[in-house]
Amino acid sequence: MTDIETITVPGHLRGYPGVAFGGYVAGVLASRVAAKAVRVDFRRPTPVEVPVGLAETADGGAVLTGADGVLAVATPDELDLEAPEPPSWDEASAAAEAYRAAPPQGSVDCFGCGLDRTPDTGLRQHCGVVPGRDLVAAAWTAGPALADTEGMLRAEFVWGALDCPGNAAGRLRGGLTQGAVTASLTARLIRPVPVSSRLVSYAWVLAEEGRKHRVGVALATADGDPCAIASALWVDLR
């Protein structure tokens, strides 16, 4: 293991209250892994506004640790997943409006899907059902505050856009229950994403068994060009 770097997740980058947004945590870890596809396994909730340790590992991965032990681990991986054709911008816009009109019970002020977030303060992954398709989708844009120095959506926020849509797919198209958590997220980023561009996030259920729900998630431009793809495992709480 390399030297440990201390990082602190700011409070506004939360998922559930007091807990760092999982997609962001995954993106931070993935940035330390030199692989096309990276898998992040979540072991414990990462707190916000609390220093935690980030280090690269001997196997080419990365690990995040806190006072109670390992919080999350990133490793190089393969991702053999083909995304279905993305919905159109208009279809995704209508789905997002339907979601906002009747959000699922238990919605929280999440950086990824909070209803009161703006393009500069959240990702607004308001994924609703697309009629006639076995998936959910949202049309959205990211604000300049989420850009890197080259005007692209920061990689950790691209990872973030691959998190909440899976929850929406599980709840609206499967049997996922309120309060479920991400157990793992495996993703491959395909191309840089300019901020303020029109984007479509969409997700679909891959398999369900008991408390475990595996979903596929993709991010595309409004013209249908792929930007990123992921597979996630969500788990219902006992």
Q: In oligomeric terms, what are we looking at? A: single chain
User: What Rg is obtained from the alpha carbons, in whole angstroms?
Assistant: 16 Å
The proportion of residues in beta strands is 25-35%
How many β-strand stretches?
Answer: 11
CATH class of the largest domain: Alpha Beta
H/E topology pattern = EHEEEEHEEHHEEEE
CATH fold field value of the largest domain? Thiol Ester Dehydrase, Chain A
How many domains would you count in the coordinates? 2
Helix proportion: 10-25%
Q: Major sheet, described briefly?
A: 11 strands, antiparallel
- What global shape is seen? globular
| Spans where pLDDT lies below 50 across 5 or more residues | none
CATH 4th-level superfamily of the largest domain: Hotdog Thioesterase
User: Order of strands across the widest beta sheet?
Assistant: 1-3-4-5-2-8-11-10-9-7-6
Q: CATH architecture of the largest domain, please? A: Roll
Instruction: Tally the helices.
Output: 4
What distance lies between the first and last C-alpha atoms, to the nearest angstrom?
34 Å
Protein name: Thioesterase domain-containing protein
Organism: Streptomyces yokosukanensis
InterPro entries: HotDog_dom_sf
